[in-house]
Design a protein that fits this description.
It is a single chain. This protein has two domains: 1-80, Orthogonal Bundle (Rna Polymerase Sigma Factor, Chain: A), CATH 1.10.1740.10; 88-165, Winged helix-like DNA-binding domain superfamily/Winged helix DNA-binding domain (Arc Repressor Mutant, subunit A), CATH 1.10.10.10. Helix content is 66%, strand content 0%. It has eight helices and no strands. It is mainly α. α3 crosses α7, α5 packs across α8 and α7 crosses α8 (140-161).
């Protein structure tokens, strides 16, 4: 594949936002997300000509960004802890079927990147299981189990932090006045 200036610019314009959002979901901060995204495009500028076709660019970019994140994580030996976040559960109590976006994001950031990455790629970046397997370089069965486990962890965190625990009481549909 030939990567001239106009092709490079078009690829950056096409993929920058989704790549940055993925980096942000992994990195937990704007500065690190920007660094990851820029480093990914820098590597593409150097190695992009090695790709066989344009159809492989998206997967290559996401794979490279994820590898860069993991390499940085290994270098740092651990991620920064999350700052304590005050959670206002009144909105969740008023509308039990809806989840506050910031609450969901905070819960997602608390999940280990092993589960967070496939969840983000599938639900927020609309990648298929096969694409995720290629990006993360794991078998498709591993992707399936990580997404399922990640969903369970996310659900637990949202129930634990965002919504009040259900109170014991009458069966659904019954009111206190007609329960004896």
């Amino acid at each position: 594949m030939i990567v001239d200036d106009s092709t490079f610019e078009q690829i950056v314009n096409t993929h920058y936002q989704s790549l940055y959002r993925f980096a942000f979901s992994l990195a937990r901060g704007e500065a690190q997300a920007s660094d990851l995204t820029q480093e990914t495009f820098r590597k593409f500028a150097v190695k992009g000509h090695q790709l066989e076709s344009v159809s492989k660019v998206k997967t290559w970019l996401f794979t490279t960004l994820y590898r860069e994140f993991i390499d940085g994580r290994r270098r740092d030996s651990r991620l920064e802890p999350l700052d304590d976040v005050e959670i206002d559960s009144t909105a969740a109590a008023d509308q039990p079927d809806k989840v506050d976006g910031s609450l969901a994001r905070e819960a997602l950031l608390q999940i280990d990147p092993t589960f967070r990455a496939p969840l983000t790629l599938f639900y927020l970046r609309d990648h298929s299981y096969l694409e995720i397997a290629q990006i993360l370089e794991v078998p498709i069965g591993t992707v399936t189990s990580r997404i399922a486990r990640g969903r369970d962890l996310l659900r637990e965190l949202l129930l634990e932090h965002g919504k009040p625990k259900p109170l014991p009481g009458p069966a659904r549909g019954k009111t206190l006045s007609n329960v004896k």
